[in-house]
Amino acid sequence: MSASELETETEPGGWEAVAELPPSAKLVAKVLEYNDRFTQSQLAEETMLPPRTVRYAIGRLEEVDAVDARFSFTDARKRVYSLAIED
Predict the structure, then answer these.
(1) Are 40 and 58 a contacting pair, CB within 8 Å?
(2) Amino acid 13: pLDDT
(3) What are the angstrom distances between the C-alpha of 80 and each of 8, 19, 32?
(4) Dihedral of alpha carbons 80, 16, 13, 2, sign
(5) What's the pTM?
């Protein structure tokens, strides 16, 4: 195993950390992998999960530093989420 592979395995917020999360969090992470940014309501629509489940999934992803959250430029009441994991 090379040094870069070892760093990736122990790096917080990597796919290894996501693998230990519930299926809803994995689904949200995959949707964010294929889409640049989504709001919580967009994630709920795209994943077909209830908003409460998406909120829970985002919280779990934030715990392992797998997502970045920023305020929306168009509506400061909303947050926009993006994946913080690099391949």
Answers:
(1) yes
(2) 61
(3) 26, 23, 11
(4) negative
(5) 0.81
